[in-house]
């Protein structure tokens, strides 16, 4: 079980005053999260205009800065279709990366997921298979039973807890029935962040927290930053052992 910290995501600057939106800030925040117990970091690189970007001129300095600030820490990125808004541009961007992340998440709900996964394999980048629904899990099973992914990322967007738990359990059932044997990382968003951290602890799964997923601590107060969220999640996992 590990805690991965997702330090920014698609959030805008007004979401939280400590949201890191350039390579230097991401490196500084990433180092603080590692010091707080994060085993891995998940980041969304930003271009000079502050927008998410997969282009090499955004990705390369971001990954390099994180490598220098957090030596030995695995660095992951997103390949979400909304970032480039064009599948061919996404594939070309990945092909052009000079500083490679250790892994990238791929949403199985997106049409081009198989092509993105193949391009990442060609570059030697690990794959987090992002599953947000039972349909996503079934698609992964049809593709290759998850045999070529680094891990399964169960990411639940439903905000009503019972509904979110139902989706989570449905995904897990599909994977179990198909005999998929890959590490699982579970996370929620906003209202479900901490219930899902606790669910991950119960199941001996990994989890993630950070300003991409939400800014509240378990007691409902606003965290001062990503490191505080990380420390809270680490405490929950340690208490479950």
TrEMBL record:
<dbReference type="InterPro" id="IPR008567">
    <property type="entry name" value="BKACE"/>
</dbReference>
<dbReference type="Pfam" id="PF05853">
    <property type="entry name" value="BKACE"/>
</dbReference>
<protein>
    <submittedName>
        <fullName>3-keto-5-aminohexanoate cleavage protein</fullName>
    </submittedName>
</protein>
<dbReference type="InterPro" id="IPR013785">
    <property type="entry name" value="Aldolase_TIM"/>
</dbReference>
